[in-house]
Amino acid sequence: MSCPRLGLSLLLLAALAWTEDEHGSEDSSHSKKKGPGHGHWSYADKDEWQLEFPFCSGQKQSPINIDTNSTIFSHELQPIVLAGYSLDPSEQLSLMNNGHTVVLQLPGSLTIASGYPQEYRAMQLHLHWGSPEGPGSEHTVDGRRYDGEIHMVYYNPSCGSIKEAMKQPGGLAVLAAFLQVGPEDNMHYQPLLEQLHKVQEEGKETTVAGFNIEGLLPANLGRYYRYSGSLTTPPCYQTVNWTVFNWTVLLSKKQISLLETTLQGDDDTDLQNNFRLTQRLHGRKVLASFQASLSPRKVPLPDGGVAPMTPAPDSATERSMDKVPGTGAGCPPCADSEKQLGFALQTADVLAGLFGALFAVTALAFLIYIHRQRSQNRRPDSHPKPNIIYTAATTDENTV
Ligand SMILES: *[C@@H]1O[C@H](CO)[C@@H](O)[C@H](O)[C@H]1NC(C)=O
Ligand SMILES: *[C@@H]1O[C@H](CO)[C@@H](O)[C@H](O)[C@H]1NC(C)=O
Ligand SMILES: *[C@@H]1O[C@H](CO)[C@@H](O)[C@H](O)[C@H]1NC(C)=O
Ligand SMILES: [Zn+2]
C-alpha cells in the first residue's frame, strides 16, 4: 500500500508543517514558503516553543536522558526487524534541507515487520548533530551526549492518514540511533553525505538514488530502549513510540565534520546544534529489550557485552532485507489503549468515590437512627417508629 500523503511527512519538521497541512496537497512541498519570514520556530528560541505550540510543554516530551540503571527489562520487546530497505538505484528519493535538518523522504514500502505491536510504515529520516565544538545527539544515555543521532520516522497506517496518525498515541514511531566518531568511513552514509553540498541552503532539494537504507542503522537492532514521547520539534505532538538503539553507528571524523559544517539554516547561518535539550520524564518508564541496568552483583550479560559499539559497518549488509512486509491483517486499530485504560481507571476512581460517600451517608443515617432509638427508649412516653426509619435507610441504599 502506498501512502498518497507522503508529501505531508515533512509535517514532522514543522518548517513545512502548517503550510503543507493547510494546503493538503502533495505538491505543497514544492511550493512551500522559503522567504525570510519563514520559520515559526528555531533552536535558538526553544524555550519559547510552547507559546505557539502548547504540546511542547506537555508531560510526555522528547528527547530524554536514559538512565540505564532505571530502565525496566521487558522480554516482550522483540528485536526490531525491518523489511524492504534495500532500494533499487532506479528509485529516486528526495533529499532536502528544511532549515532545521536534512530530510530524506522514504517510501511507505519500508516497514517495521517486528518489534512493535502495531504496523509501521516509513515516512522519512533525518539527522541531528552538534558542531566542531561539541556533540549533538538529542537523547543522552547516563548523561552522555553522543556526536549525532539519526531518526527514522514511521506512521501507523491503520490510523487512516499520516495526519491522523500524528495525533493518535502510538500513531508514530521513531527508530533512533546514536552517531559516533569511529576509525573509518562508514560507506552506508556516503550516498547521503555526498549530496549534502547540493542542499547547502535552506529550502534546497535534490534527489538521491535508492540505496540500502537499513545500513544507516546499527548492525544490532535487538538491543534498544522503548518509551512514549513526542516529536522533538514543534508541534511536539506526544504520539511517538520511541525506539532508541543501544548499539551506535560509527562514522569517520571526516564524515561527522562534513555533517557539522556543510549546511546552512535560517539567515544563512551554519546549521549546527540542531538538538533539543532533554525533557523531564514526569513518571514515565523506560523499557529495555535487554538487561541494561547493572545490578550491584554484576551479573554478566548473556552475550557478554557491557558497552557494545557498532562493529565493522559492513556487517550490517546481510540482514533480513527481503522479509515479506506485514500484510496489515490483524493490525490492531489505531486505538489508544492507554487512553482507554486511563478512562477505565478514572471511572473506577469516580465509582469508588461515590460508593465511599454513599457508605458514609448510610452509616451516618444508621448512627442517627440508633441514637434516636436510644433517646426515645429512654423517654417514658416514647412511641418508636423503627420500621419507618429503618425502611427509609434501606430505600436510600437501594437507589444506587
Ligand atoms: C508502544 O510500544 C509498547 C511496547 O512495544 C506497547 O506496549 C505500547 O502499547 C505502545 N504504545 C502505544 C501508545 O502504541
Ligand atoms: C548500552 O548498554 C550498556 C549496558 O547497559 C551501557 O553501558 C551503554 O551505555 C549503552 N549505550 C547506549 C548508547 O545506550
Ligand atoms: C548503576 O548501578 C551500579 C550498581 O549500583 C553502579 O555501580 C553504577 O555506577 C550505576 N550506573 C550509573 C550510570 O548510575
Ligand atoms: Zn529528529
**How far is the N terminus from the C terminus?**
52 Å
Shape: globular
Number of domains: 2
Q: Provide the CATH topology of the largest domain.
A: Carbonic Anhydrase II
CATH superfamily of the largest domain: Alpha carbonic anhydrase
Helical proportion? 10-25%
E-strand count: 16
Topology as H/E string? HHEEEEEEEEEEHEHEEEEHEHH
Bound molecules: 2-acetamido-2-deoxy-beta-D-glucopyranose, zinc ion
Strand content: 15-25%
Strand count, sense and closure of the main sheet?
13 strands, mixed
Mean pLDDT: 77
Question: What is the correct CATH architecture of the largest domain?
Answer: Roll
CATH top-level class of the largest domain: Alpha Beta
Secondary structural class: alpha+beta
Query: Which consecutive residue ranges, at least 5 long each, have pLDDT under 50?
Result: 1-39, 296-332, 335-351, 378-400
* Radius of gyration from CA coordinates: 28 Å
- Helix count equals 7
Describe this structure in words.
With 400 residues, the protein is an alpha+beta fold. It has two domains: 9-333, Alpha carbonic anhydrase (Carbonic Anhydrase II, Roll); 335-378. Helix content is 21%, strand content 19%. The protein is built from seven helices and 16 strands. It has helices at residues 17-23, 49-52, 162-165, 190-193, 253-262, 337-378, 386-398, and strands spanning 65-66, 72-73, 81-83, 92-97, 102-105, 111-114, 120-129, 140-141, 144-145, 148-155, 172-182, 205-209, 224-229, 240-245, 249-252, 287-288. Strands 2, 3, 4, 5, 6, 7, 10, 11, 12, 13, 14, 15 and 16 form a 13-stranded mixed β-sheet that branches. Helix 6 packs antiparallel against helix 7 (386-398). The chain is globular. 40% of the residues are buried. Mean pLDDT is 77; it is low at 1-39, 296-332, 335-351 and 378-400. It binds 2-acetamido-2-deoxy-beta-D-glucopyranose (NAG) (3 copies) and zinc ion. The site of one 2-acetamido-2-deoxy-beta-D-glucopyranose has 5 residues, from loops. One 2-acetamido-2-deoxy-beta-D-glucopyranose (NAG) is lined by residues 116-117, 169-170, 226, 241, 337-338.
